[in-house]
Amino acid sequence: MEFLAFISVFYLAMVVVLISQVFFKTNRTVKIEDQSAPSVYDCSVDPSVLQDLKEIASLIESGANTSEVRKIYKAMRLTMKLRRKLKVSILSAFLNYALGPVSEVHAQLSSYLPQDKYDTQVDVEMPATEAHSKHLVPELEIYCYLLVLIFLIDQKKYNEAKACSSKSIVSLKNMNNRTADVLASKLYFYYSLSYEFAGDFAEIRGNLLALYQIATVRHNKLSQETLINLLLRNYLHYNLYDQAEKFRSKAHCVDALSNQQLCRYLLYQGKIKTIQLDYTDAKDSLLQAVQKSPVTAVGFQIQCNKWAIIVQLLLGEIPERTVFTQKRMEKSLRPYFELTNAVRVGDLELLRTVAVKFSSTFSQDRTSNLIVRLRHNVIRTGLRNISTAYSRISLADIAKKLNLDSEHPVDDAENLVAKAIRDGAIDATIDHANRWLVSKATGDVYSTNEPQIAFNSRIAFCLNMHNEAVHALRFPQNLSNKQSVAT
């Protein structure tokens, strides 16, 4: 009897444990489902996000009425922080607040917002105390266009984004306010981005040129910077490097107001100079773009570093190893690290292997045509290594070490060696009778002008950076002088 009582108690305890485990798993599943990411079609309105948008609208109105551009800048920074929290219901509520439910612009923007079969348009009624002013400033109307356009691009609704951006550009052409210049530059950027994602980038090239002409006549410097970069991006997207250089050389240069636009301009200029064989200027532009870009712009820095590595290799320089070991860039720069190793060793066969192995990456980066140019640099590096290692070596051995796969490798090796000697890459002579390469004794590099040239270039770089930093300083307005003049 005691044994049967023990067995019954044991089975009862096991049942209780199983029931508790099932209840725990069910509760955990419910909690996980409750913590899932909210849908953009959620009908609920987050009051905190809506309140933040109202404060941004008040900030834009205040900046427009007092002609304070810094308030518009602040409004755009705050908007980028709220970008991932936007939903259809929040945008509808904000449009009701900012534009009014009976406004024509409100009707247009509401038609662009995506609709879900489970989501009817949510009309959030504003209390009378929260009713917006009837005297709507044009900047706020443009901001509403911009907000909806950003949301459509994030949701990959590119056709609706194209229609919305085109309508906003028509409204923007009639505005000529300094406070609207900041919003206009952002609107131009997303206008171009929507057409680029939709695959219709070439359609707006003429319109961008017309907008640039209007911005130049009105002396809207920030819009000029943005439109110059957008046009260069448009040309480079279709490999129109000659047209891009003609436009860049004739465009009216303005002082950089935005560091982001300056970095983009330096990148595009570096790409153009690289294609046109002006490697020295291309290197300077690309390295400046890397140094001036924000730390958070990792993708932009990776793109600049890729082109800068190629340019340095074409110049006969080997990039530092620290370039390839930067945080969050090691995986992306791995193909270019192996490419650099092939050039450093001077092995043509290794160069071919790397080019085939990472052909898809190089094609995506649009650097395949530049890698073809590296063959001459690999040969020159190999000849330099051979000249340093051997005081005398036959041309046949040189052709074998360089892995020349032509029909007459010895004759080709002789031509390559002669060209390298003429260009000053190696200090040697050719014994044509015996078909030898005779290297001269290596001298002391410090007895030449090379250390002085390298030191001078570093000093010039530091002075240039100091001058740019002083030029970029901003000082507060001298209010005492204004008050004395007013009195």
TrEMBL record:
PANTHER family: 26S PROTEASOME NON-ATPASE REGULATORY SUBUNIT 3-RELATED, 26S PROTEASOME NON-ATPASE REGULATORY SUBUNIT 3/COP9 SIGNALOSOME COMPLEX SUBUNIT 3. Keywords: Membrane, Proteasome, Transmembrane, Transmembrane helix. The keyword Transmembrane applies. Residues 263-444 form the PCI domain. The chain crosses the membrane at residues 6-24. SMART domains: PAM (SM00753), PINT (SM00088). SUPFAM superfamilies: Winged helix' DNA-binding domain (SSF46785). It comes from Nicotiana sylvestris. One of its GO terms (biological process) is regulation of protein catabolic process. GO terms for molecular function: enzyme regulator activity. Belongs to the proteasome subunit S3 family. This is Probable 26S proteasome non-ATPase regulatory subunit 3 isoform X3. The keyword Acetylation does not apply. GO terms for cellular component: proteasome regulatory particle, lid subcomplex.
